[in-house]
Design a protein that fits this description.
The chain has helices at about 15-55, 95-105; strands spanning about 80, 90. By secondary structure, the protein is mainly α. Strands 1-2 form a two-stranded antiparallel sheet. The longest helix is centred in the N-terminal third of the chain and has 45 residues, at about 15-55. The N and C termini lie far apart (about 90 Å).
Length: about 130
């Protein structure tokens, strides 16, 4: 790099624009190469992190935002059905609008139970 000073104030518009284009091209190339290098380093870190987590989580499949493995939840079968639209609800979480509206009009939740689904399922006791 040279140490001579450039007086931008005395340069013509065309010279300044040419200098601007040269600097833009050089910056684009350097930014691209820096980005590639950072992506390469990140890939190496992710590979080593995956090997460490794989050993500690015993091959867990999915990860949350914290990086910890999520536990697998059993599939929940529906317990209630809307007879008009066949929409279903498992009984977990917020009650669906159709059920809330039906209860407000005087219906009972048991009226919408799917046969066999309303029976409480507890742990089996040993005989």
């Amino acid at each position: 790099m040279s140490t001579k000073k450039i007086d931008f104030e005395t340069m013509s518009f065309d010279d300044l624009w040419s200098l601007h284009e040269q600097i833009s091209q050089i910056l684009a190339v350097r930014i691209t190469s820096e980005k590639r290098e950072l992506e390469r380093r990140l890939a190496v870190l992710n590979r080593s992190r995956g090997a460490i987590e794989g050993a500690t989580n015993e091959g867990a499949q999915s990860y949350g935002s914290s990086g910890k493995a999520r536990r697998k939840y059993p599939r929940v079968l529906p317990k209630y059905r809307n007879p008009q639209t066949s929409e279903t609800w498992s009984g977990r979480g917020k009650q669906p609008r159709w059920l809330v509206a039906a209860i407000k009009t005087g219906h009972r939740i048991e009226e919408f139970a799917i046969n066999g689904a309303s029976a409480p399922k507890g742990r089996r006791q040993r005989a």
